[in-house]
Amino acid sequence: MTMSEIKQRFSADELAELNSGFESGGPEDVLRWVDDTFGDQAVLTSSFGLEDVALYDMYWRINEKARVMTLDTLRLPTETYTLFDQFQLRYRVEIETQYPDLDAVRAMIKEKGFNLFYKGIENRKQCCGVRKVDPLNKALAGVDAWITGLRRDQGMDRGSIEIVEWDEPHGNYKINPLANWTFEQVREYVDANGVPYNELHDRGYPSLGCAPCTRAIEPGEDIRAGRWWWESDPDAKECGLHIVEAATR
Ligand code: SF4
Predict the structure, then answer these.
(1) Active site residue: 127, 128, 213, 239, which one?
(2) Mean pLDDT, the chain, as a whole number?
(3) pLDDT, tens digit, for every residue of 180-226?
């Protein structure tokens, strides 16, 4: 029996039944089930965007010791670090912070420069790999379930996500409690519950990421238009963290 078979607790039919029930419930129902099923073997992976802070607030109301993990790429905006501090004060929780391997960062910079990502999509993917994907893969090796703030209407491959998915490459469950929510619903939740959020959202940043790779968008622009805006292929605008082929089934 392989490791993934040991950790795979639900059959395809059971998963389909779970998802069918969750589609008509709310994200809190999903989080309650996650807490009951996985306990401290589940973690919310957060880039501290609006979806993530709303989700953590819901999760914390269910379990004040709910885990939250983030990736510090070492290139985040100052406003994001400010939010980390506010968040820890508000929820009295330690943010489990993952960092890139410094030897790998050093070697990449030595070979290609500090701002290599502006010099071609391959360089950008390499930087995302070193600073985000590798540390995330390492961190996820130790959990049974990871919770994300992905929504279907964010476009790209996200349109087909399920609320609960078996994540074969990581050998665990990927949970997307906000899959069927809109941005407006997230915003309403944050406002109604006084959830601390990144002030960049009020300056035209619907999507947050590293400082050199994220800009504000104009009204009417696609919500991901501010990410790697110098690249012409809209289908390439993923950093590799949520590639659906790699993260579902
Ligand atoms: S978003 Fe930009 S700076 Fe951040 S890891 Fe990706 S390429 Fe590097």
Answers:
(1) 239
(2) 90
(3) 999 999 999 999 999 999 999 999 998 889 999 999 998 888 877 88
Instruction: Say which residue the tokens 């290609």 belong to.
Output: 112
User: Per the structure, how many domains does the chain have?
Assistant: 1
The pair of structure tokens assigned to 66 is 């709910």
- List of residues 6+ apart from 176 with CB closer than 8 A: 147, 148, 149, 150, 151, 161, 162, 163, 164, 165
Residue 237 is predicted with a pLDDT of 61
Ligand 1 mutation target, pool 134, 208, 213, most atoms within 8 A of CB? 213
What is the CA(101)–ligand 1 centre distance, in A? 14
CB 76 within 8 A of CB 211: yes
Residues, the chain: 249
> Which pTM value belongs to this model?
0.90
For 83, the domain range is: 3-247
- CATH number, domain at 154? 3.40.50.620
Q: Is 239 noted as a catalytic residue in this protein?
A: yes
Pocket of ligand 1 (CB under 6 A): 73, 75, 117, 124, 127-128, 131-132, 209-210, 212-213, 239
